[in-house]
Every structure is written in C-alpha cells, then in structure tokens.
C-alpha cells in the first residue's frame, strides 16, 4: 500500500474508533509524523490520562504501554508490535526483586519507569531520567536500591549526598554500548559542538558531556542554546524532532549505532493494523496495577 493511502486510512480509523496515537521520540520519523503526541514515556502516559479518547495506540515498547494502562485502566491501550520490548526492563524480574527485599528489608527500592508493571509493583517509588535525583533526595531512608539501570543509578549516586545507593546490574544496550573511542574521535571532528547525552550512557561517556538529561530535557536544551552544532548521545529517533524544531542548527550522533532495535520495529502499516484489528491489547492484572500505581503516584507527587 502507498504511504499516503496508509496515512489516510489511519486518520479515518482514528476518528471512527475515537483513538489517539502516541509515539515515543525514538520511533521512526513516519510514525512520529502520524502521531497526535510525541514525547518520552512518562509524558505520553500522562497525556493519555488527560484525553477522552477510548483507544490509545502506543507506538513504543511494552513497558510504556503498560504505564499508560496503569494510569488509564478504563482505556483500551494498544501496542502495535507485540514483541516490542526493552532488554533493560527485562534485566530485573519481580521474583528477583522480592528475593532482594527479603535479604535487605531496610532498603528503599527506587525503580526507573523503564521497568515492567510487576517490578514497579514491588518498588517503593518510581523515577524517570528527568527526576531521578529529586526522587532519591526525597527519600527518608539512606539505604536505596536503584533498579534496573546501573548507569542512571550511578549518575544519581554521584550527584546525591548522604545516601547509600546500591545499583542493580541492568543497562540499556543502545546507550551503554557507545564506544568511548569513537565518541572521542567524533568530538575531535566537531570541536565547536555541544555534547548532549542521556544518563543511560556509561559514566565515561557522561564525563564527555556538556549536558546530561532525559530526551525532553535534551530537546529543551538544544532549542534554547545559542550553539549551532550538537552531538547527541541518545537514540537517533530524537534527531527528527531536534532538526524539525531547529532547522538552522546542526545535529549529529555521538556514536554511529545509537539505535534501539525494539523501538524501530513499528512501521506505519503496524499502526494501521493496530487500529484496524485493535491489536495488541495491553492489560495489567488489577492487583499489580494498583501497587504499581502507588509507586508511580509517589513519584508524581514529588515532581
Ligand atoms: O531509553 C528509553 O527508552 C527512554 C529514555 C525512555 C523514556 O523514558 O522515554
Ligand atoms: Fe529499552 Fe534502551 Fe530501547 Fe529504551 S532505548 S527501550 S531503555 S533498550
């Protein structure tokens, strides 16, 4: 089917089904263009609670659609690609976390939103890459376990005072695998560029950065900066928004392979099929949903 025809059919079905399309900023440009809202996972889940559409097509990965369902239990949440997951979220399970809690009953569990609903349900409070520091600082207890991202956890650990932060050994392969050697070479080739990176990157890469932040913080920083050139250390999907919003600025990647394979699985045809066949519906068991919601709401109260 031709691209224009697919887009027309998507628009038509969207109206018929009273649906909204949300796309993460790591999705391919065509999918971002067809979406009603583009953003990071939490911003999208929060947006989903504020609209009155009955159906939410969440173009992203499983944990993001689950978060939308946790916050909007009465809406039908669809994930166009059933197998779109997150290898980092899969590096911790509720079972292993329960075992840890049994052995460490005094530890407060802080979980990054990039985690499954059942891991959130075992956690005391959630955080995002924008508010992780604020969330950890707000905790009374000084013993904290940060799951699952050891890089974001380490970034928090290095910037928080008087807290003992244990790190779970998870990581995002996309951000963690940036080669320092290649990044240094690219930096040398672009001496004027500002380096903006996501805290899911390794400590060595974070040390190269002029700015460390979530995708929305990176976009805001680039929009407001007077620099003309930037090197980006996060998934390449954000280049689409950065270039669109800043046609006179130049954006390159800090590493050639900043690509999340799961985020790139969703194509326009999949968005159309999701609407047409109302697939693949994401459900979260009510007991897990309620406990995960407590951890999410605690974070929302703080930030
Ligand atoms: O790395 C990811 O998947 C991110 C940054 C997700 C998010 O929270 O938007
Ligand atoms: Fe998971 Fe990393 Fe992909 Fe985000 S970019 S979905 S953290 S693997």
UniProtKB/TrEMBL annotation:
GO molecular function, one term: quinolinate synthetase A activity
SUPFAM superfamilies for this protein: NadA-like
Main localization category: cytoplasm
Enzyme category, top tier: transferase
Cofactor binding note of this UniProt entry: Binds 1 [4Fe-4S] cluster per subunit.
Catalytic activity reported: iminosuccinate + dihydroxyacetone phosphate = quinolinate + phosphate + 2 H2O + H(+)
Cofactors (names): [4Fe-4S] cluster
Compartments in which it is found: Cytoplasm
Binding positions ([4Fe-4S] cluster): 86, 172, 260
Pfam family, one: NadA
Gene Ontology terms: biological process: 'de novo' NAD+ biosynthetic process from L-aspartate
InterPro entries associated with the record: NadA, NadA_sf, Quinolinate_synth_type2
One GO cellular component term noted in the UniProt record for this chain: cytosol
Family in the record: Belongs to the quinolinate synthase family. Type 2 subfamily.
Free-text function comment from the UniProt entry: Catalyzes the condensation of iminoaspartate with dihydroxyacetone phosphate to form quinolinate.
Listed NCBIfam families: nadA, PRK09375.1-2, PRK09375.1-4
Name of the protein in question: Quinolinate synthase
Organism of origin: Caldisalinibacter kiritimatiensis
Name of encoding gene: nadA
């Amino acid at each position: 089917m031709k691209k224009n025809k697919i887009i027309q059919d998507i628009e038509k079905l969207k109206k018929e089904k009273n649906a909204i399309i949300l796309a993460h900023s790591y999705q391919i440009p065509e999918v971002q263009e067809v979406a009603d809202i583009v953003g990071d996972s939490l911003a999208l889940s929060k947006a989903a609670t504020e609209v009155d559409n009955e159906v939410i097509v969440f173009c992203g990965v499983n944990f993001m659609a689950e978060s939308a369902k946790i916050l909007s239990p009465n809406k039908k949440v669809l994930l166009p690609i059933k197998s779109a997951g997150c290898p980092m979220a899969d590096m911790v399970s509720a079972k292993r976390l329960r075992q840890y809690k049994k052995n460490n009953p005094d530890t407060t569990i802080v979980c990054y939103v990039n985690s499954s609903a059942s891991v959130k349900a075992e956690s005391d409070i959630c955080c995002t890459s924008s508010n992780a520091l604020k969330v950890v600082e707000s905790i009374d207890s000084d013993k904290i376990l940060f799951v699952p991202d050891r890089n974001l956890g380490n970034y928090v650990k290095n910037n928080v005072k008087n807290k003992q932060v244990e790190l779970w050994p998870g990581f995002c392969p996309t951000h963690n695998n940036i080669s320092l050697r290649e990044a240094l070479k690219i930096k040398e080739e672009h001496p004027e560029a500002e380096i903006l990176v996501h805290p899911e990157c390794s400590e060595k890469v974070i040390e190269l950065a002029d700015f460390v932040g979530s995708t929305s913080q990176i976009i805001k920083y680039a929009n407001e900066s007077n620099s003309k050139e930037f090197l980006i250390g996060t998934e390449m999907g954000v280049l689409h928004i950065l270039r669109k919003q800043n046609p006179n600025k130049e954006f390159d990647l800090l590493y050639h392979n900043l690509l999340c394979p799961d985020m790139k699985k969703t194509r326009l045809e999949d968005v159309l099929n999701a609407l047409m066949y109302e697939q693949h519906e994401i459900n979260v068991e009510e007991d897990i949903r309620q406990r995960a919601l407590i951890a999410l709401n605690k974070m929302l109260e703080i930030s």
